[in-house]
Design a protein that fits this description.
Layout (H helix, E strand, L loop, with lengths): L5 H4 L5 H14 L59 H17 L3 E4 L9 H11 L6 E5 L4 H7 L5 E5 L5 H6 L2 E5 H11 L1
Parallel strand pairs: 1-4, 2-3, 2-4
Length: 193
Amino acid sequence: MVDLPAVLFGREPNEAVVHSYIVAYLANQRQGTSSTKTRKDVNGGGIKPWRQKGTGRARAGTIRSPLWPGGGTVFGPSPRSYETRLPKKQKRLALLSVLSDKARNDRVKVLADLNLPDGKTKNFAALLGRLGLSDKKVLILHEGQNADLQLASRNIPAIKVSRARLANVYDVLDADMLVITVAGLKDMEEVFG
């Protein structure tokens, strides 16, 4: 049994900071490439369709008016950036808040290591079953490049594997359980502690 470091897991959770992090994170995931053509961008419409007066019809200057079929769009979306920036201290506080909340609710497991020499999904699924995590959404944080772990876990949809020093609030909050290797825990203490 490993004691969780109070620096990472002993904070009072701050919901407001976590919320602002999640809003910014999701905004930053947006591409912002949706686009429509306005009346000036649509092909055609260079000539007035009929004379101004005397036809009994409404006046019209172009067949590409937004009122006409095939016309331009009014106030449609155009490419833009949704990027939102948060201060580093706020990001760190949000991560520590989420980690502390997981620890309070007994949703953190620390393992000595996760060596899977063959990289087989079947063996990894059996390990999850022994840990009682086979029916949960799990985030595994390890110390670095572990190709066998990546290979064994990539075909199980509820499992996400990441380096401990790259942990982010969204992934931690999204997971039901957090599994951290001892070396990964040291990495997190070094980076976020």
